[in-house]
Amino acid sequence: MAIDSKTHVVILGAGVIGLTIGHVLTEGDGGSRFKVTVVARDMPEDLSSQGFASPWAGANWSPMQYDERLHGWEKHTFDKLWDMIPTGLVLKCPSRIYFETQDAFGAAWWKDIVRDFRVLPDDGGLPPDVNSVVEFHTVCLNPTLYLPWLKSQLEARGVNFVKRRIGSLDEIGEMAGDAGVVINATGLGARSLIGVEDTKVHPIRGQTITAYAPNATEFITVIPNNEVILIPMPPDPPKGDDATYLIPRPAPQGSVLIGGTFQTHNWDTSVNMHTAREIWQRAVAVVPALAEPETRILSHNVGLRPAREGGPRVEAQIVEVPSKGELVPRLSDREDGQKKNVLVVHAYGFGAAGYQQSWGAAEEAVKILKENLPESK
């Protein structure tokens, strides 16, 4: 395809999903086939913004409930991140999960994804109410390093970044141009983006603590209230809104993320110090290294995981713009005779699994885009 006939793809959203889609889209012949623009209110350098979820994520790979479609995304992402360990962006992390029942590990469908999976022998030293334990190696990221890296990769490939608040599909459709394509990777924004307005989208509030704890080197999950908890939590957790975990990070050396909460439909982005004390007390009880003199608190954090009832939405839709309605924000006036159909590929609603499904979901989103381009039919 000639340079002047590139398909313009506008990615709305600069979180981990939008950036990863941009990376996949510009690989190989994508650089000569597509002109890519990323448009977002919050950019990877806006790491203190609570307007998007990606800077606040745990950003490790950990098991969730089985789903055939998501399993493929998860395996692809794990393998991709595992191969990135030599870059220093990804940490090879020893991990441990405690189970209440003797045979809980029999349902560990994910043992074919992680590395070095093994069941620990019961030597009589298990914590109270724990009857089995598994160990394995997983991968951990630090979003404050990983997001800027993704952006730098895209900039090196000629991707343009536009910092702008978008209120409607009409606006982003106009930016894409007459033959352009839109990727909707807006996360929670899909609920309020006019033309999408997906009421299935909702937040899951996560409060965490970042600390310097050089001797806390394992990813740990525990069992609150005699109930097996896998962190990050499944889309619809069975009970409660507490989750105890510790995630080491590749850098800065010795930094860990401690959590946390899993509060569905809670939009509060303020730090609750009572909750913080509870998080810390639970964590110290299971990770003694946190009580050592070297440990110090670095920050308290709150992020809103962009969840969706029924799971992530990754699919194509043809949208007519400008849409009907006098109150719809637009960039310019168009006569009715100038209406056009815009291909929109939606990719949002990943909840707590944005990082660990990112590469697999991005591959599927790009595949859907290519299959639905007019030239592909």
Label this structure with key terms:
single chain, 377 residues, alpha/beta, Rossmann fold, D-Amino Acid Oxidase, Chain A, domain 2, 6-stranded mixed β-sheet, 7 helices
CATH H level of the largest domain: which superfamily?
Answer: NAD(P)-binding Rossmann-like Domain
CATH class value of the largest domain: Alpha Beta
Distance between the termini: 16 Å
As a percent range, the share of helical residues equals 10-25%
Regions with little confidence, pLDDT below 50 for 5+ residues: 223-239
Q: Assembly state here?
A: single chain
CATH architecture call of the largest domain: 3-Layer(aba) Sandwich
CA-atom Rg in angstroms: 22 Å
CATH topology category name of the largest domain: Rossmann fold
Number of domains: 2
Supply the number of helical segments.
7
Question: What's the number of extended β-strand segments?
Answer: 15
Strand count, sense and closure of the main sheet?
A: 9 strands, mixed
Question: What order do the helices and strands follow?
Answer: EHHEHEEEHEHEEEEEEHEEEH
Which strand-content bin applies to the residues?
25-35%
Gross morphology: elongated
Mean pLDDT: 88
Structural class: alpha/beta
Q: Any overview of this molecule?
A:
There is one protein chain. This protein is an alpha/beta fold. The protein folds into 2 domains: 3-54 and 144-200 and 310-376, Rossmann fold; 88-140 and 201-308, D-Amino Acid Oxidase, subunit A, domain 2 (D-Amino Acid Oxidase, Chain A, domain 2). It is 23% helix and 28% strand. It has helices spanning 16-25, 30-33, 68-83, 143-156, 169-176, 273-286, 354-372, and strands spanning 7-12, 34-40, 91-99, 115-119, 132-140, 160-163, 181-184, 201-212, 219-221, 242-248, 255-261, 263-264, 296-308, 313-321, 340-348. The strands form 2 sheets. Strands 3, 4, 5, 8, 9, 10, 11, 12 and 13 form a 9-stranded mixed beta sheet that branches. The protein has a 6-stranded mixed beta sheet with strand order 6-2-1-7-15-14, sandwiched between helices. The longest helix has 19 residues, at 354-372. The model is unreliable at 223-239 (pLDDT under 50).
